[in-house]
Amino acid sequence: MTRGYEGTFSVDIFNYGTKALDGTLRVEGLPADWFASSAAMSKPYRVEAYSTATVSFQIKPKTDAGIGDYTATVTDTAKRRPLAPKTYTLSVVPKLSVQVTKKAVRLTNHLAEPAAGTVSLVPPAGWTATLAAPANVEVAPGQTVSVPYTLAPLPGTKAEGALNVTGAVVSGTETIPFAARLDAVTAQAIGEAAPVIDGIAEDGWAAAPRLAMADASQVSAEYRPSWTPEGLSADLRFQWDAQRLYVLARVKDDTQSQPQSGGGMWQGDSLQLAFDAKNAGGSGYGPQVYELQIGKPDGGAPQIYKGMGFAHSGPMASGAIAVTRDEATKTTVYELSIPFAELEGAGTPAAGQAIGMSVLLNDNDGAGRKGYMEWSSGIGGAKNAALFGTLWLN
Question: Boundaries of each Alpha-galactosidase NEW3 domain copy (predicted)?
Answer without folding.
Answer: 1-75
